[in-house]
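User: Predict the full complex structure for these chains.
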Amino acid sequence: MEGELDIGPSFTSAMETVLAVMGPMAVGKSALTVRYNSGHFVDNYEPTLEDSYRKTIVLDGRSLVVYILDTAGSDQFSYLRDQYLKKGHGFIFVFSLTARASLLELDDFIQQLRFCRESDSLDGVTVLVVGNKADLTDQREVSEEEGRAKAEELGCAYMETSAKSGDNVREAFETVIRGIVDNRPASRPPSKKWCTLL
Amino acid sequence: MSKKSSKKSGKSSKSSKKSSKKSKSTKSSKASSVAPGFGFGGYPGYGYGQQFGGFPQQQFGGFPQQQFGGEFSQFGGFPQQQQFGGEFSQFGGFPQQQQFGGEFSQFGGFPQQQQFGGEFSQFGGFPQQQQFGGFPQQFGGFPQQQFGGYPVADGSGYEAQQFGGYGQQFGGFPQQQFGGFPQQQFGGFPQQQFGGYGQYPGYGYGEPDVAQNDNIWQALVEQAYEWFVEMATAFGLGPSHPGTSDEVAGASGTSGDDRLPTISGLPLAVVVAINPSQAQPGVPELLAAALDFVEANALDEEGLFRINGYIRQRKQALAALDPQMLAGARVQFLVDPASATDSGTDAVVRDGETVLITLPCVHTVASLVKHIIRALPEPLINDDAVRILTSDNDGTGARWELLEAAIPFEAYALLKRLARHLAAVVAHEASNRMSASAISIVFAGTMDVPREAVIGLLQEAL
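Assistant: Here is the predicted structure of the two-chain assembly.
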């Protein structure tokens, strides 16, 4: 199978994956990203302007380079969002399980995504809605059902994570990355052709 | 009586005209993103006489596209807010013109009166009258031809050349026609006829000695008002401004009616004039009340000024906060978690002289403050102020003096108030987790300055 063919890092451009982590402020986007990238929890309360990470992973036997964009939650930068929304292959929309308002804010993000993609459906884009801060059970304001219902309403998959404990973080990122890779009909034929030629 | 009713019918025909215009302007503004760039949009009062004359042509020709292409260009054009200080009567007056039409007595009740009074004496000649007097003839015709044609002109009208041409028209215009105009024709007018105005109550209306001027006055006001609303609408200043996604959702329900621009996006001096704080001179009551509220209730709230709160409710509130609503009012904030889900209640209610703003959480209040500051057409901290705040200077007080000289009074007053507020927020870092650094990131974006300037501001206040 193709997956077994090690095409090496210099041939990964077709496999390049851009994933943007988006959502309102102070929901834990950076904490999730750092947790996934380096495996530890940073308890830093400074708002992010923009960060990006490059990570090489092996997923289902395939070597992938993933660019992860850690975006600003502030809607002061909402004009920057367009860029991410156009560029990204997949998105993790994060809200905080401890703040109902942050769940409602996701509507804006999804709406903007649809607008950018000029499409009412999110076909071809992998979107995951993530409820973060699952460890703070005593401060929880959004139930799993509500989160799931919202994700369904928006046409996305749903997961609950905790950047602090690390629960589900890797799973969430890998779900999206897998979705992106599987969702990529256009880039498959060329790489296939290339391999056949070789 | 008959006057009133005729006025009403006049207004309804106005609004139909306006709505047709509006649909056109929306189209053309899509065709060219430069469209709203033109500075003067809504404000007939602005730009008169000296100000206008003082307006360098180049500035005019050049700036719309680049700097002000976006949202609040209307005001963008104003070189100095202070001028508004003098002008504000127009502003204060304007929004209420609807009330002029209807209930004059309302006018009598405004706390602004004193201020108006003060202004009048200062001006002696009553700037409005000159302007009002002056402009219907010129302006009455003017908008339709030159301005009016503007948005409609299939988009191409907005291009650079036209702006260039504009600048000339404008640049030349005021000096010749406007500058000289009031003195000659109307120089004596205000004092004699409208002198009684300054004394208020009732703004002179209905007083027998002024009654004879009713027609003139009313006609002038009506034309001015019509032009104002038309321009405001044509340039998308209204609550349903297509350019600001922020405002759109909250206000979409109210588009097309006779609404004035919301408070957000007006120059600070105008906001202060409309809605002055009694306790904190130079600061808009709306912001003063919000900051007081946060200080009293929310300093220990985690993520204060970082977390957005409920966006929909914030938009609703912003959309309802127009000059008319706020004119001379006291503002009171209330946090009611129920309003997060209950969309039936009004976020903003005016009861007599008090405006009650109900929001679901303190973060929404904080977010409202940030949005109003962010929407100011002139930066609160201009380049000079940034230089002052980022320079090495640890002599406390010295920076304030420099700032006071560098920026308009209203900006200075608000900045001082804000610095005190943010220092209080940072002082509670242990509970709200907002360090000076975190605050500086948030407010650097809000005020469009480097982080160091916010840090400098905090240092001054600590």
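The longest strand of chain B covers residues 330-335.
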